[in-house]
Write a structure and sequence with these properties.
Elements: E1 4-16, E2 28-31, E3 34-39, H1 41-49, H2 52-58, E4 64-66, H3 69-78, H4 84-95, E5 116-118, H5 120-134, H6 143-146, H7 154-159, E6 175-177, E7 180-182, E8 189-195, E9 210-228, H8 229-235, H9 240-256, H10 263-266, E10 272-280, H11 300-319, E11 325-330, H12 338-350
Antiparallel strand pairs: 1-9, 1-10, 2-3, 3-7, 4-5, 6-9, 7-9, 8-9, 10-11
């Protein structure tokens, strides 16, 4: 039976620019007619995937998103004294199964046009196959020789992948992540800053060596993530223990890891002050509707928690409970802990 683990976070970020748009300003969204700060799901997942939390919890069970698998194969062969032209030819023969190759006359002919999410077993197989070909074996690599339909890479199983030229090896994401938005109205401000040339003499003009502007904002963000625990275990070939570890890593990272945008300028390293975890077979739902009307009280943190929990009660009263079990952490109320949330997630993934 399908079961879901739903995670809801409220996190305060001080003045920052964690996720920029094409003009360099913080990303935004208009919600309920009011401007809000926004952090894209892509930015969040990238921060989590590359975090020490994922590294510590998942270890070797992580993939790599890259265009450079062919270059890695080529370098691997060159280190074993294979001639440059032979190494490139073998690299291209194998890398083409991970994506469309760049033209041979391109400055990077071993790269693919698109990024491919590659698991550790697939990488190891590609390198081993390249060695065999370089050793003289007459091989014609096929997708089945290289690609896997299930994962040992938990992040691929969680966030999915698309191989346009080999769709049989695509992976449906078991984890859905919403864009985080502020619970309240936000106005983006501009920082006018200068950089002074330390070697400029007193006789020269007093002007700065550089002048710039940077947008920033601050707010309490609501974040929602949903894990299809059955699909996650299926993507991992039935490895429920790894699925549980991946779910725990997701919860810990979402609670403790901040996106990296402009962190040297703002040091906006925050942790969630409220977490609600739910598990059950009911159709999942976001609680973002709690913030259609912007929170506008004096205590935005406490009022956001109240709004969220009240909206959840209203939805449950109308539609019926959306979870069979829940766990809650509230820093303001001194209730619960991250360790308890993690234990809840481990149990949810085990079913």
């Amino acid at each position: 039976m399908t079961s879901f683990l739903q995670l809801h976070f409220l996190t305060f970020y001080p003045p920052s620019n964690l996720n920029r748009d094409d003009t360099g300003r913080p990303k935004t969204a208009t919600v309920g007619g009011a401007p809000r700060l926004r952090i894209s799901s892509q930015s969040l997942k990238r921060a989590w995937r590359t975090s020490s939390v994922f590294a510590d919890r998942l270890g070797a069970h992580r993939g790599e998103r890259t265009q450079r698998i062919g270059e890695e194969i080529e370098r691997h062969l060159r280190e074993r004294n294979i001639a440059a032209d032979r190494a490139l030819a073998i690299a291209r023969e194998i890398a083409k199964h991970f994506g469309k190759l760049k033209p041979e006359k391109d400055k990077a002919p071993a790269r693919t046009e698109q990024l491919a999410f590659i698991g550790p077993e697939e990488r190891a197989t590609a390198l081993a196959l390249a060695e065999r070909m370089a050793g003289g074996e007459k091989l014609e690599p096929a997708a089945d020789d290289l690609l896997r339909r299930t994962d040992t890479a938990a992040d691929i199983a969680m966030f999915g992948r698309m191989l346009a030229d080999n769709p049989d090896y695509n992976r449906e994401a078991a984890v859905q992540v919403a864009h985080a938005i502020t619970t309240h109205r936000v106005t983006i401000e501009d920082d006018y800053y200068t950089a002074v040339d330390d070697l400029k003499s007193a006789e020269e003009d007093a002007g700065a060596g550089f002048v710039g502007e940077l947008g920033f904002g601050s707010g309490i963000f609501y974040l929602y993530a949903c894990v299809d625990t059955g699909l996650l275990a299926g993507n991992l070939g039935g490895d429920t223990a790894l699925a549980a570890t991946a779910s725990a890593a997701l919860a810990e990272a979402a609670a403790t890891v901040s996106p990296k945008g402009k962190q040297p300028s703002f040091a906006a390293r925050s942790r969630a002050h409220y977490i609600l975890a739910e598990r059950g077979a009911a159709q999942p739902r976001t609680l973002a509707g709690a913030f259609i009307r912007p929170v506008d009280g004096i205590d935005l943190a406490a009022d956001s928690i109240t709004r969220l929990t009240d909206w959840r009660k209203r939805l449950d009263a109308t539609y019926g409970p959306a979870a069979d079990a829940t766990a809650e952490m509230d820093v303001l109320a001194g209730k619960g802990s991250l360790a308890e949330i993690i234990e809840f997630c481990l149990a949810a993934a085990h079913g």
